[in-house]
Write a structure and sequence with these properties.
The complex is a heterodimer of chains A (about 350) and B (about 270).
Chain A lengths: L28 H4 L6 H31 L3 H4 L4 H8 L3 H7 L5 H10 L7 H14 L6 H16 L7 H25 L4 H29 L9 H13 L3 H8 L5 H9 L8 H19 L4 H14 L3 H7 L1 H24 L1
Helix pairs in contact in A: 2-4, 2-6, 2-7, 2-9, 2-10, 2-11, 7-8, 8-9, 10-11, 10-13, 10-14, 10-17, 14-15, 15-17
Chain B lengths: L1 E14 L3 E9 L6 E10 L6 E4 L5 E8 L4 E12 L5 E2 L22 H11 L4 H15 L1 E2 L10 H7 L1 E2 L1 H14 L4 E8 L7 E2 L3 E8 L3 E6 L4 E2 L4 E7 L2 H4 L2 E6 L2 E13 L7
Helix pairs in contact in B: 1-2, 1-4, 2-4, 3-4
Amino acid sequence: MGGDASYGNAVPPTPNPSPPLRGGRGITPAYAESLNMLSRTADNLYWLSRYVERAEYLARILEATLRLTALPLAYVGASNEWESAVATAGCSSAFLAAHKEANEENVVDFLAFSSDNPSSIRNCLELARHNARAVRTALTMEMWDAINGTWLELKRYGNGPSSREEVLRFLRWVQESSLRFDGSAYRTMLRNDAYWFSRLGVYVERADNTARILDVKYHLLLPENERVGGPLDYFQWSAILRTVSANTAYHWVYRDSVKPWFIADLLILKDEMPRSLSSCYEAIVRNLDSIASVYGRQGAAQRQARGIRTRLQNSRMDGIFQRGLHEFIGEFITENNRLGVAITEQFLV
Amino acid sequence: MRIRISHTTEYHYDVPPTGVIQVLRLTPRNHEGQYVVDWRIDLSQDCRLHPYEDAFGNITHSFTAEGPFDTLQVTVDGVVETQDTHGVVRGAIERFPPAMFLRDTDLTRADAAIVAFAEEARAAGDPLKMLHRLLELLNREMTFDTSPTQSSTTAAEAFALRRGVCQDLTHVFIAAARHLGIPARYVGGHFRRNDGVTMQEAGHAWSEAHVPELGWVAFDPTNGICATDAHIRVAVGLDYLGAAPVRGSRYGGAGETLKVAVEVAQASWQSQS
C-alpha cells in the first residue's frame, strides 16, 4: 500500500460547504416526531468539533516534527521528517502539487497557514468559526467566546511567524485554543443531542488522526525492527508518543523503556489512553447510544460503531502483528471513514 | 433488540459459613451479534472481586467472602443490544482451534442410545444439514421438564429419561454432534421469551457447533431454533461445568438453600427529553 493510497476515501479535507449556502432546509421527517434538532445544526456542531480537533492534531504533528528535526542529524537519520509530517497530515498529493520538496519552511506554511490547503490549521479554525456562527444559538457563551476569540487572534499571526520560536508559540496557542473550546463544551453544554453530536465529531476525528500517525510510522513499530538502544528509533518513538501526549502515560502503563510494540498497544488497544483507537470508539459508541436513546431509534451508525468497538476489544496485539499492522491500520482508517459516512447519512443530511 | 437482564443468585445458610469462595461467569462479551451497553456485578458482602479471563476467553470474576453471614447475594444487572445473525457467531473470542471442541467430558459422553440417535441424523448429508436434523429430532424426542434432572445429570441419563431442562438438551445435542465428528460447545446465557414472561427461574443454555465455511453456529435444542436476537451469549465451555454462571465452595456452615431469579425483558429506550 502506498503512502497516499489508504486515504483514497478519507474524509474529504475540503471545507464543509458553508451553511448559509445550503439554507432553507426543513425538519427532516425522520426526526420531526421526536422534535430534536435540525440535521443542519447537528451537522454544524459535528464539523465544528472535527475542525477544532484537526487543527490541534496538525499543531501536534508540527510540534513533534520541529522537535525531531532540531536534533543533530546523526540522531534522527537521513529520512525527511517534513515529508513524513505531510503524509501524517494526509495531504501529500496536494502538497506535492504545489511544492517540489518538503522542508521546514514550506511544510509549516502549508500545514499551518496556507489558505490553498483546505485543511491547514488556519482553514480549519476559520471553518470551525464559520460553522459555530451558523449554530451560534446551539453553543454556550463560553464555547462561542473560545472559538470566536481564536479566530480573531488568528488574524494577528498574519501570514506566519518569522522565527522558529514564534512558530512554536503559535502551535502551542493552537493546542491551547482547542483545549479551551473542548473544555468549554465539556463544562457548559447541556447534555442533549447537541452535545453528543459535538463529541462524536471530536472522537471520529481523533480516531482518524491517531490511526494516521500509526499508518505513517508503522514501520518503526514492527517488532522485528528492534535495534535496542538505537538513538534514531528512540527519538522517533518518543516523537510518536509526544504527538499524542503519551510520553508519561506510557511509563505509567508499562513501567519499561520505550518499546515499539508497547507503543502500538497503547495507541490501538488501551482503553485507558484517551487518544487510543479503542478509547475513541468507546466514546463514539456511548455518544451514539445516547443519541439513539433520545431519538428512540437507531441505525447503521450505531451498529457499525459497535462492530468496530467489538473488534478492537476482542483483538490482541500479537494477533494484529501476525495479520499485519499496516493492513490493520489501513482497514481501520477505511472503517472509520465509513462510520463518518454512516453518521452523515443517518443524521446530518 | 435491546434487552435488560437482571440475574440474582441468593444463598441462604441455616448455619453461617466462615467463608465462601466463588467463581462467576456472569459477564457477556461483545461479538458481531451482541453489544454490551452496560453491565454491573453486585455482591451483598464486602470483598474484592477479581476479574480475569479464563482459557476460553470468558470474562470471569472470583471472590472470597469472609463470614459469618446468613445470606449471600450475587446480582448482575445490565443492558445488551443484540442483532439477529441467524445463529452465526462471528467476531467472538476464539482461543482454541475448533477441533478442541470434539473432546468428550463426563457430562457429554455419548452412550449407545445417543449414538444410535445421532446416527439417525447422519443421513441428512453435510454437517449443517445434520445439525438441523439433529435439532429437529432432539426437540421432538425430549420433553422440557424441570423436575427429574439436576445440574449434575449427564447427557446419557437425561436422554434415557427423555426429559430435562435446557442444560440437559444441550448436553445431548453436544454429545450427538461430537459423535458425528462436528465440534460442539456449551453456551450459557439468557433468553428473552416472546410470550411476555420476563421472570425466569434460571438462565438459558444452548450449544454452538462448528460448521466449515460458516464458523460457529448456535443451535438451541430447547426451543428447536438457531439462536436469534433474543439470545444473550454469556459464557462458553466444553459442557455446563465450563460455562456455569456460579461455581464455588464454602468453609463451614450448613443447610444451604439456593434461589435464582432471572429477569430478561426487552428494554425500552429511556426518554430523556
